[in-house]
Amino acid sequence: MFFKRLLLALPALLLLALSANAQLMKPNPESFSRADSLRGSLTPLRTCYDINYYHLTVKIDIDKRFIQGSNEFAFTAAQDFKKLQFDLFENLKVEKVVYKGEELPFSREFNAVFVTFPETIKKGSKDTFTVYYSGNPIVAKKAPWDGGFVFAKDSAGKPWVTVACQGLGASSWWPNKDHQSDEVDSVLISMSVPKGLKEVSNGRLRSVVEQPDGYTQYNWFVGNPINNYNITFYIGDYAHWTDELIGENGKLTLDYWALKSDSAKARKHWDADVKPMIKSFEHWFGPYAFYEDGYKLVHAPHLGMEHQSAVAYGNKFQKGYAGRDLSGSGWGMNFDFITIHESGHEWFGNNITAKDIADMWIHESFTNYSEALFVESQSGKAAGAEYVIGVRKNILNDVPIIGHYGVNKEGSGDMYYKGANMIHTIRQLINNDERFRNILRGMNKTFYHKTVTTEQVEQYIAKQSGLKLDKVFDQYLRHTEIPVLEYKIKDGKLSYRWTNAVKGFDMPVKVTLSKGKYSFIKPTAKWKTTKLDQNLAEADFKVDPNFYVLSKKSL
Length: 555
Hints:
By secondary structure, the protein is α+β, with helices and mostly antiparallel strands. It has helices spanning 2-9, 12-20, 34-40, 44-47, 263-285, 337-344, 361-379, 381-390, 417-430, 433-446, 454-465, 470-478, and strands at residues 49-61, 66-77, 81-87, 93-99, 102-103, 106-109, 112-121, 126-135, 148-153, 159-164, 186-194, 198-201, 204-210, 215-222, 233-236, 238-247, 250-259, 295-299, 304-305, 311-313, 352-354, 450-452, 484-490, 493-499, 509-514, 517-521, 528-531, 550-553.
């Protein structure tokens, strides 16, 4: 998410300039460190155990920007082992690791912690250990563009504190198995904050306990699988109100938390988008995946983040993205971008999660397209198409969308706009909106609460559509070039071929073979010829703009 925040923060003119020169850019070869491999790879010290449950307990001293606490790891052994790895940033101190009442020896290398057990943990056995820790967590300089804690104050001068850590890693503030491939099945989050402030986390509130040291502990339980960077907290002088919606799986509770000073405008503003959005997304993607935990929208001191069942909101109660339309189509000013986009991640990102951050397009491409689908639900199919076509102006075509595997490295920020336009193009190829909708719903059912790879997603869409899409995915996910339909018209005939494309690229595309009507042609790298309607003037020949391709008249 942070990459997108950086990209969207750039001035529009700079974006256009970068886009115009993208094909001239040669990305520098990247080198990765031992620390990157420890963070991003699945070694036997990580795959040896499967996380079942966490109990995260944290006390936050806001004035000192200091945290202390513990995390209980409940796991199932995936194989026999005596040693495992968990993760905690090296600026935080591991006080001790306790197993069956005894302290275990451990060692540290960068942000990885290695624990040795006194005896072999047998495959299939269930066990627990607890990590105690403390320290001053990283403070974000400009969240959520970078990761870390946010220590802010509201208009009355009261503390307003949260964290955003996607990409940086949840191990920047609490010990865990910090890899997206292993989502914990459930988690109890116990946060202690200074008395007089409220604290909100994921899931449902189980209890509030007043403590003798002037702190209040809030205990929240998440009953669904959740990835580590989604586990969060919000501390502030909050107002809270509730609502509900009858969705595809019955009653869905809606909880809203806004600063007291902003609660009046928050009520009116959120009411305009939330229920229509959930109804739209359930129509397109299937049931909301976390009915047991409910849906929350929480006012945050940064722009926003897709924290599961506790979505962070910081768009200042205005339409668009920070008050502007990212598509330039006009449709982007009819809704609050942050509410729609970050909530869209509940389906793509939270329900369906990429195993490796290199495949983050699975989160961002579909969620970016969810904005266009919401526009379509509200204003019609043409409006949705105009929106997604409009965001192409933000595409850089700098480096491939898929990043580097095993080193915690995402690909290009084009995973948002370019990825959405790839999906829109595939929708045209399917040429049946009900089938396309059923594929999106089927993905959320087939991969329900699962972590997946690019290959799984590609294979699913290809199988369900009945289309050969391997070269389409290669073109848009693994390369920066945009296919060019080269054509020439002579004596009532159209000659055409693909250029600037991957080897074997043979994607069909719609063009005007007769006036005012688009028809499919099937270009390859070799010239093909077909007849044009005699009433079609050369000036009327067009490529359907719903396909993300370029065209060039051959001399």
